[in-house]
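Lab meeting minutes (informal)
Scribe: AK
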Amino acid sequence: MDLLRHLRHFVVVARELHFGRAAEVLGMAQPPLSQSIQRLERELGVALFDRSGRQVRLTTAGQLLLGEADDLLAGEQRLRNLMDQVRRGALGVLRAGVPPETPAVMLRALLDGLAARAPGLDVDLHELTSAEQRRMLGEGRLDVGLLHHPVEEVGLRFGPAVDVPVGVLLPRASPLARARQVDLAGLAGLDLITAPRATAPGWHDHVLAVCRRHGFVPARVRHARNPEFLFGLLLAGGAVAVEPEAVARREPRIAWRPLAGAPLVKRTSAAWPDRAPHPAAPMFAQLAAEVLAVVEPPPGPAAVASAARPWPVLFEAGQSPAG
C-alpha cells in the first residue's frame, strides 16, 4: 500500500469536505479517489469521514489523522528537498550559534568537517550565549545552536550530550594549587567568578546550588564574560572559577585542579527546532559532538552520547551541567 499517496488524497478530501471538488483538485476521477479513501480506512481500521448526512464530515479519527498526515507529508517533502539539494550540491544556508568562549581550534575543526561532509552548505556562524541561542531558536532566527544545560526543552530537539568535568581555576602561586584535587568546602571565603546569569541561567543557578550543597558559599559572585577578563580577576587574587580544564590552557599562570568527588559536570548539547528543522542541523550536531569529544576529552570513559538517534549533539568549549 502506498500510504503517503493515500494520505495525500485524504488531506485534500478533508480540506474540501467534498469528494467531487477534491477529485478536481487532484486531477483524477471521483471513483478512484473514493476507492483510495476506502482502502486507507480499511488499512487503519477506522472511518475517517461521516457520509451519513448531506455533507461529508470528518470523524474524530479523521480529525486526529489530519494533523498527523500534515506532519508526515511535510516531512516527506523536506526529505525530497534535501535529496534534491544533495544532488545539486547545494544545501542552502545553515544559521548556527556557538558560545562566545568556543576555542579557535574547535571552530576550525567544525568548519573543516562541515566543508568536507557538505560542500554545498553555507554556514552562517554566530557568537551567541545559551540564552540568546534559546530565544533565537524559538523565534526561528537560528537553525541550530550549542546550548549549556539545564535549558528549557519545549519546542526543541536535542542531539546527544557531551559531558565535560569541571574543576577549579586558580593562580599557580595559590597554596591550593599544590593539591592534586580541591574540595569545594576548601574554597570558603573566596569569591567565585562566573559568567553573568543572563548568558546561561540554568547553568549559573546549577553551579551556585552545587557549591552551596558542598560547603562553598562564595564571599561574592563576580562576573566575567570573556577568558581574558576572567584570568585578570583570578590573577588579582582572592577568587576562583569553576570551568573545564581546556580554559586553563589559554593562560600559563593559571592552574586547573579537579574537584574532589567530581560534583560538577558541564553538559553541552546541540539543539534545533522540532518543527520544520533545517536538513543539515542533525549533521552539524553530530560533527560538533565529535569535535567536542576530541577537544575536551574527559578522563576515564569517553564522553557519553545520551541520545536515541543516529544524529547526535554538539560541540563546545563552554558551560553546561550534568543533567
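Next up, CB showed the second protein from the same session:
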Amino acid sequence: MTNAPTLGHVHLRVADLDRAVAFYTEVIGLHVTQRFGNAAAFLASGGYHHHLGLNTWDSRGATPPPEGHTGLFHAAFLYPDRPALAAALRRALDAGVALMGKADHGVSQAVYFNDPDGNGVELYWDRPAQDWPRDTEGNLSMVNAPLNLEALLAEAPITR
C-alpha cells in the first residue's frame, strides 16, 4: 500500500517532566529537541524533530493508571543492532530499572519494563528480514522464546 502511514511519535502524560526527561535521555538514549519549561519536552534520535513527546499539562504530580484498565501497553524503541540493545539494557539495569519481561520473538529480541510513570517500555532489535521465522506457506511465525540476558549483556560495548 503506497499511502500507508508509519508511526510518527508517541506522546505521554507524565507526573514529573524532569524525571521523565532524565529517564528517556539517560536510559533510553534519546536527546531533547525542544522543551517548554516544566510543561512539555520533545525527544528524538537521528536528527528527527521528535519521536517522543512528554507533558504534564493534565498530569503534574499524578499517579499511574490502575492495573487492568485500557491505555498504552508499551512504547517500543528499536535499536539498530544487538550490541546497541545490549548497551541500552545495561543503562536500564544500571539505573535500577526492574525488568518485567524478556523474549526472543524470532523476528526480534526484546526486554520490557516500566518508565517512572508506569508506562510500558520495550527495547528491541530486529533480526534481518531474511532470518525471520516462517511457516511452510511463507507466513511469519513469531514466537515467545526465552532470551539469554547474560549473553545479550556480554555484547554491550565497553564504556569508560
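CB comment: The chain is about 20% helix and 25% strand.
No objections, moving on.
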